[in-house]
């Protein structure tokens, strides 16, 4: 089975799908599945732009709304995770995953699905230590803080994924697992992105949570994006026992969608030839969701997941074969994910711009149906209940807070996961700073710059397309220079032309390098990641 993997597409769906069509015409290669590693930007209308945490100059409608409205349909099944530049209000409707448009599926805060027997997992957002131990408490209309914290990874999602025992074939994260750069051509990486040097040398570049998952899940492939540079690595895992067979992970970070960039990669993945062509639920993952449902938290108080420290009656939430069998029986052994996409917001109309529409906190029928089927808590419904009971968002009463914590212990107990030693307690070096050029911008303004109805021909932007080799760059830094050069050649060069990202406002709806130090330096470094001008300098 051929799988196409994309980095940050930033809403440029037309360009991404045109690339796949060009690939088929020129090389007779037709991917069966497209994966996108975040910053997908499923923006439906002007209100969604208000919920996207990017500077105003990057807020543009782009082309997703055409797929949402039904004007267009994705030519290939597309599965994506969230990044740190998303219409958070839209994705929040689907905490357990769901269809954002026909043939385009979001994995949720964390999720695992199957396609043709291939097991695909992912975790959305980026790591930020001061939000890591909080619940999912945010909802639109967001403020200057929650518009950002909404996309920060939470410990409960990592905990759920760590309960998985069965092998994972492919895993996606937006930010890189911390330390992965030590398993690839680090010298070449720093040559291309010299402003990474401080974080690489101090081992603070990337997500410690993702690194923990990499060590636990040991997937065959791990794909990331976020840093807007292509990078390959190969990590050999240590066996946990004499009986366990050695495992290795092929890691690949993808560039963003720009002209003359290798922002797409094609890989061949072994699959079950007897499996159907439908996207399917993963029975073990559903069983884990059911087992961990009591741990759901919608407060912003810090808390820890259960662990074997004498403070918890239960700490192992992994599931038995019997629990998995029960899920299969509930579904009559039909794991096919229903095509139950539903419009939950008005679609952008270029002829009738509505710049002052505010986003609304919406409960999506897909989530309602999913939770009812498997006996799960609808996180958005829980948030609504808390608000109706007089708990102001982000400031619940102490009694409710303690009740939520009963099964997991005190918020003050030491965490199994020492996030504060990461060096990221105040600033995440991976996160693009949004207060460039004079601080945060007014969330109440929104300018819409829709994509042209007739996009240009990108055929001249593509270089030769090649399939990823079976082995990717490995070993120590010095041994990897020539190896990584081959890896760079193995990319499927694609187009992309970047039209600045989306724009902004909020509300609700229903049913550099060596010079400076400190914050200023990090801002510059992160601006460089995001800005296309910096990308051109590294070519």
UniProtKB/TrEMBL annotation:
Location within or outside the cell: Nucleus
Domain Lariat debranching enzyme C-terminal: 235-380
Residue numbers spanned by region Disordered: 387-462, 474-539
GO molecular function: metal ion binding; RNA lariat debranching enzyme activity
Major location (coarse): nucleus
InterPro entries: Calcineurin-like_PHP, DBR1_C, Dbr1_N, Metallo-depent_PP-like
Basic and acidic residues bias locations: 486-506
Key word Thylakoid present: no
Nucleus recorded as keyword: yes
Keyword terms: Hydrolase, Iron, Manganese, Metal-binding, mRNA processing, Nucleus, Zinc
Matches recorded under Pfam families: DBR1, Metallophos
Highest taxon above the source species: Eukaryota
Cofactor: Fe(2+); Mn(2+); Zn(2+)
Bias (Acidic residues) ranges: 397-406, 432-443
Polar residues bias locations: 416-428
Biological processes per GO annotation: mRNA splicing, via spliceosome
Cellular component terms per the entry's GO annotation: nucleus
Coiled-coil residues: none
Family stated for the protein in its record: Belongs to the lariat debranching enzyme family.
Protein's name in the database: DBR1 enzyme
Organism field: Atlantisia rogersi (Inaccessible Island rail)
